[in-house]
Amino acid sequence: MPVNHKIFSEINEAQWLWYFHNICADEKEDFEFRRDLIEYSSSFSSFEAVSEIRKKREEKENILVSKTNEEFNIGLQRLFGRGLDGDIESDSKDIKIADPKKAIEAYNKIQSGYNKKTQEAKKDYKYWLGIDLEDS
Known about the structure:
This protein is mainly alpha-helical. The protein folds into 2 domains: 6-97; 98-136, no CATH class. Helix content is 65%, strand content 0%. It contains 5 helices and no strands. The two termini are 47 Å apart.
């Protein structure tokens, strides 16, 4: 679809980000397909070298995945006071536990002041990221 198509004048920022995400995912998929095709054709001439390269790449990917999972678990511990394993770190000083009641009150306060004049400004993702739902 051309970039000047009329559909692009009617989408919001979240849709733009989703569109960009899908373009990046397609490019990654295309890269992996071409890489795998090159590895396949190269394996006929040097199977050991290709299998060694593939093994090293898979080890690196496994390290990255485990590191990402570890960072996600740390984020959960900071936000909710416990990770996926359910262990609660009572001696941690940087734990911030979200209070659902305050979050709901903040949401209701926002909705009560919501009118047509401010409706367009509140659709912006930057606005929603700026809302503080925790104690200050």
